[in-house]
Amino acid sequence: MDELRKDLRLAFRSMRRRPGFTVVTVLSLALGIGANTAVFSIINSLMLSPLPIENDSELVRLRDAINQEGRPARTTSMSVDNYLALEQQTTVFAGLAAHDYASFNFYGGDEPERIQGSLVTAGSMPLLGVEPALGRGILPEEDRPGAPARVVVIGHDLWQSHFGGGDEVLGSAVALDDEVYTVIGVMPRGYKFPYDSEVWVPMGMAPDETRVLRHFLHVVGRLEPGVSITQVESELGTIAARLEQERPDTNSGWGYALQPLREDITDDVQPKLLFVLMGASAFLLLIACTNVATMLLARSLEQGSEIAVRMALGGTRVRLIRQLVTQGLVLGLVSGIAGLLLALWSYGPLVALSPLSGMSVFFQELSLDLRVLGFAFVVSLLVGVGFSLVPALRVSRLELHNHLKEGGRALASRGRRRLLSSLVIAEVAVAVVLLVGAGLMVRSFKRLQQVEAGFDIENRLTLKLSLSETKYPEDHQRIAFLRDVLDRVESLPGIATVDATTTHPLDNARMAARYSVEGRPPVDPGHRFVTNHRMVSPGYLRTMGIDLLEGRGFSEQDGEEGLPVVVISKRLADAHWPGESPLGRQVKVGDYEEDNPWMTIVGVAEDVIDRGDFEETWYLPYTQRRFTREIVTLVVQSETEPGNLIAPIRSAIHEIDETQPVFEVATHAEMLADSHREQRFSTLLFGLFAALGLIVAVMGIYGIQSYSVVQRSREVGVRMAMGAKPQDVLRLVLRQGLKLALVGLAVGLVGALGMTRFLASLLFEIAPTDPATFLLIAVSTVLVALAASVIPAYRAARVDPMEVLRYE
Q1: What is the pTM of this model?
Q2: Pairing between strand 113-120 and 199-202?
Q3: Which spans in 49-103 are helix H?
Q4: Angstrom distance (rounded) from CA 665 to CA 140
Q5: N or C: which end of the chain has fewer CB within 10 A?
Q6: Chain segment 145-162, per-residue pLDDT in tens
Q7: How far is 248 from 243, CA to CA, in rounded Å?
């Protein structure tokens, strides 16, 4: 222990004696450790840490699954009848619970709001092992159709913001969608499952023939202790086969599918993206370690006389290695603390910029925990040992006799300079791999941004309304309200046009509809055509800036009494009438034999990007079909800056209905940018790691060039004394830097060819071996390396040969 204390004192003394070296070392390593810790903290939060619910490993998500010939089964939410059958017949689950998405108009503040909620069965919260922090949960008798009282459990944030956080909230009345609910409980802080919910109300589920084909229930099951997934799948197959025999009309080809609940919650996260980013941050740390090892070795060479004297006075090689490794460990731990602080500082902005915050209802409550702290500590130890061991082993093998005789020049031999050069080459190679990856991501992101949306972006504003079923229960009431809103808003100064749609192309929500084509009954009864279903007001296509390629759009004459009409997208037209005009052809909602009216195609519209991809879409006048959609999106084409119109639009709507919430207000530009959020985040982070790696590699080239100039000052002086000109010396040093860069570049490009294939699934219309990217990175690396060699070369060219030779 006494020797350890001496080593630690010597390490801290050495750090104080060379503050510049210490600052550069700690900063380089802190960047690498901080980047790794920050990325690992996200992986830990999403994939490793337990969810804040009891025994989450026993929970699975259950879905209905339809078999598709020659393709994997397609899963969807569960129907009511399938859920009830499963609940009655299963033996492998300790319990089942169901929930469905809901949102409510909430009247509890200065203005009406739209809040997120869930319809849940009474057993949902007990199944998850979560109970209200205040009050109680939903009772079975409250979760049935026609229950005598409407009850609600509210979230912690809503309790604090609108009810003052007091116990008197229990038993108070809350207005949701013009219905009065009684508050019976408050959930714990941070609990928002599912859907980032703020309120939970009973589902009141019962068998209903009108919705037997609707698959809308999200079902969670808790496995019985000791039951394996194989047993569960076997029983689910048995129940599905039984239902197929009993209900061939509704269950033919259908089965059940299951997935661990954690995987379902983080299903939108690409694990590959996270691990690619983790690999990029690990490369950054590797570059930093190599750079610090180079600086340490160079410094050890400068301290050669001191080290040789110590060994001549009895110091052993083991003692020397231990001392140098101790210094490395101290530097590593100090860098680890700085890196952890950097990770803590960057964690919030990192989550805010990333798409991950919206992918898990628990993610926003998670933070750096003991596992992350342990990760940072272990990485710091490994880094400390890693970057100090190579210099320690190398220096400990010096020849004392030659070194003492030559006054310190032995360590500066050609072989040792080769080792320093090799470390710099390694830095450049790893930096090139990072830069190629970042270059591919940047080019991919630019390609994605250049994709035509199919509608206009400039001066377009969207906002949403929620039509209460209590206040507007009938179709004609909803249509009348929307007409009043459209007329009132369009009359405002600065507004060119305004129209309505059930879903916007860039919404996360969408409506899908089965459809049939006249004269083409399906050969396979299990095969159904599906389209993106959008009901719109007459001028919607014009307001959105969607081009009509053929035919016409809608008019006020396309009303309830008019001929049923539809406008289809180009992709839908090409799917059924390639090379032909679809005008006058007929399609209808539902299966071929269903008693729905045939609709005549009157127009073909340009394809639009829809949730990141083009899809078959049709547009229907909202006056010709049951307008049951609760959420309506208004699209405003403005003559001025759209943001200046939000307040007047809100006021105009509240003049018609003061209880109508206006929410999710955004411009088209903002919505399009948000749809690229994941690609933008990965590009930004990858590019940041690559830029930092390049900076550290440049520091390495600059350091080895500066050290080389100092060590070769005698050689430079002799050359200049014998007639070499300053420009000759300049070229000599630049050539050395260029050689290091070219060798590192060659190694890095070969490594990039192998590594970038892991990026293939993250790239958009860019090959992992894109020649333009590789060429750009190659040229940039050479230019940057030359720039890093300019100052050392300039210093070498200014050497006074007489002064150097006199000193020698």
Answers
A1: 0.71
A2: parallel
A3: 80-89
A4: 38
A5: N
A6: 877 778 999 999 899 988
A7: 8
